[in-house]
Design a protein that fits this description.
Helix content is 66%, strand content 2%. By secondary structure, the protein is mainly alpha-helical.
Length: 265
């Protein structure tokens, strides 16, 4: 008998033991991508869904996170930890997306299972780098901002697709090149290459978000660019730096008019 895709996704989301979660995430993504799964809607109480996570890291307000110098080993480790925390949240976000929204085509779930596989691999690679510096995931505090956005968009697939991949994750496309250069300046080529890999695959993740955002707009008979501008006004902080990664965002499916609006917002 085939496993139910939504029950599998919920099991990944709710698992809180870190190593078990990573193993289960890898296995589940592989199972879904093999297409040997059923997509009959499953009874999942979406209102009570909570992402499983280990006891550490401690979650604090973003403003309380200490600033660190990446020229020190502790500073580099803290930066790697923050990247790993983003990837950990990304794993939970994908499994939440799959088990929460159960009325999409199979291609939707295949796309996001591929994203889950890559986010899991990113986390493992970052954790390995962290271990090489004498630290592990959970050794530094972190914030819960990304999951708070997930809660705010839990009721609306269109909103989730606009905000998480096309606003939150797309911001990573803008800032990662500078981070790569900072690590290269301190002769940490291994981390630079890892961040380049993550950036390259993150473009694909945002592109998948764009693809399904536009699918949902078409389904609801909404203009995707007009709708996105409205969502940006509510969910995207003002772009004070006006600096965006044009090339990466175009590869991820943004239109020129969307980019212009983001710059001037």
């Amino acid at each position: 008998m085939r496993d139910n895709i939504f029950s599998l996704a919920y099991a990944c989301l709710s698992e809180y033991q870190l190593d078990d979660k990573l193993s289960l995430s890898e296995k589940t993504a592989k199972t879904i991508l093999s297409r040997y799964v059923g997509i009959t809607p499953a009874k999942i109480d979406c209102e009570s869904i909570k992402p499983g996570r280990p006891d550490k890291p401690a979650l604090i307000a973003p403003k309380n996170l200490p600033k660190r110098n990446i020229q020190t080993i502790e500073g580099r480790a803290a930066m790697l930890h923050s990247f790993a925390h983003i990837e950990f949240n990304a794993i939970n976000l994908v499994w939440d997306l799959i088990c929460r929204f159960q009325n999409m085509p199979m291609e939707f779930y295949l796309d996001w299972a591929q994203v889950a596989a890559e986010e899991t691999r990113h986390f493992q690679l970052l954790r390995k780098q962290l271990n090489q510096l004498g630290y592990d995931y959970g050794d530094f505090s972190a914030h819960n901002g990304l999951w708070e956005i997930a809660d705010k968009t839990a009721h609306d697939l269109l909103l989730r697709l606009a905000v998480v991949p096309r606003i939150m994750e797309a911001r990573g496309l803008d800032v990662t090149p500078d981070l790569i250069n900072r690590f290269r300046q301190i002769k940490d080529e291994e981390t630079s290459l890892l961040l380049e890999l993550i950036l390259d695959e993150q473009i694909g993740h945002v592109q998948i978000g764009t693809k399904w955002y536009r699918y949902q707009c078409d389904k609801l008979n909404l203009d995707p660019e007009v709708t996105f501008e409205k969502i940006i006004r509510e969910y995207m902080p003002s772009n004070k730096s006006k600096k965006i990664n044009h090339e990466a965002r175009l590869m991820a499916g943004f239109s020129q008019s969307e980019l212009q609006y983001i710059i001037t917002h």
